[in-house]
Amino acid sequence: MDRSWLKHYPPGIPAEIDPSIYPSLKALLEHALATNAAETAFINMGTRLSYAQLDLLSAAFASWLQQKAGLVPGDRVALMMPNVLQYAVALYGVLRAGMVVVNTNPLYTAHELEHQLKDSGAKVIVILENFAQVLQAVLPRTQIEHVLVTGVGDMLSFPRGFIVNLVLRRVRKQVPPYDLPKALRFKNALGAGLGLTVTPVEVGPEDPAFLQYTGGTTGVSKGAVLTHGNMVANVLQAGAFLITGASSTRGTTIVTALPLYHIFSLTVNALLFAHAGGCNLLITNPRDFPGFVKELSKHRFHYVSGVNTLFNALMHTPGFERIDFSTLRRTLGGGMAVQAAVAQRWKQMTGCILSQGWGLTETSPVVTTNPPDVDFNGSVGVPLPSTDVSIRDDAGVFLGTGEIGEICVKGPQVMRGYWNRPDETAKVMFGDWLRTGDIGYMDEQGFVFICDRKKDMILVSGFNVYPNEVEDVAITHPGILECAAVAQADERSGEVVALFVVKKDPALTAESVIEHCRKDLTGYKVPRHVYFRSELPKTNVGKILRRALRDELRNSGGPLG
Hints:
This protein is α/β, with parallel strands linked by helices. It has 17 helices and 26 strands.
């Protein structure tokens, strides 16, 4: 097919990558551990973990899994932690033992946790003690054989680690009481594994590395089977665009606020920067924005990854304007649409372009990104090396340049299917192509533009309205901090646009919002209803949950106050 986008590749970036240079993600990580032994791999709350230490501790955990827990290659291990050093050690250990990582959101309810543990068949779980009470409620109904519990401060240097655990347990009361009598402390498992040797295992590109569960926004959450080959390919693909070679990235730091159990942060931060010899500055609680800004002021950093809501909130946090951005090379936005107003302000305040990319869980995740020297243009960039993108209608027919349809993807990063769900796999896969569920178009230069998720589209009297377009206009109102556009049922037109707004200006009125939107939107796209909220519902990574807002409207049975 015509790859018009290749002419926008910066010099030195290949049209194709060769994932066979690493037989597995295990091999890639072990090479990184050996090559970068003297460098810092992770920083968390002032404690540094070198690649040499990560090598030692992850090998200890791999040995424990093999020889103490009795697991074999292919067995699943659930990790239920935020951004703490323990997550990195456990992640590397599971992969080095030839087992499969099941990343588990610490904010899951008991129902959600039970579904994921039962569906994946995980035999071991490593869990932060703050969430152990939720596990206790469902543990007897799962296949879990070993529970390893850890505290936020367990791997921090003394006395900080002791103080952090004490404050969280006794002062802030953030560790609810739990009863898991057979649970073992994670640090004790590491201690037991230090005297053992990892049993060599053969892992190939077709072996599963992750069961990465989707958000479940369209029903029951499904586990995308991401193989070692998928992950190696995406590390090399993303690395071709996001870094300029391992030698120039060794020793640099990326700010890691998105949780590493999320696929974007997992691949781009944890895996790519290990391959490049970089360091992850872990932000354990990114919702504490004053604390986040204070932490940033202590470090010189070179890369930042995040989502639109995170960038927006940071820029509205006192002290952000005093941070030293002189070493910042790239800012990477993904996970949700980056709004033009946010990108422009970010560049003004930091001097750095906010580069937007796009992908999804099923593609490991990166599909497209903007070249480093391209200013924000509203697109999600061009396809990565070895990646084909096409726009198709509902019948699967190719659409022409500028025509809007479903974005489909083919490449070595595309999943093998959903875990134990051939029916769901068949709905999204046709041959080697994946139907993404995202609606968009490609321009004559090969840049991809996302209009919206197929399920989020608003149909007003037969006309398609894309929420992103409405939000991009609304957010430029100086009185709006955040907003989200969703469909609201209407007797005359079927649906109309409803806009949920968080105020920046307390005096903001619905009338002024609607008038502002009228200046740049066709009549049927202008919000019919404006609802003010103190905050908007978000996922664990800060992505606004339009689904929750639609449900609120649907359940209200009429206009809201």
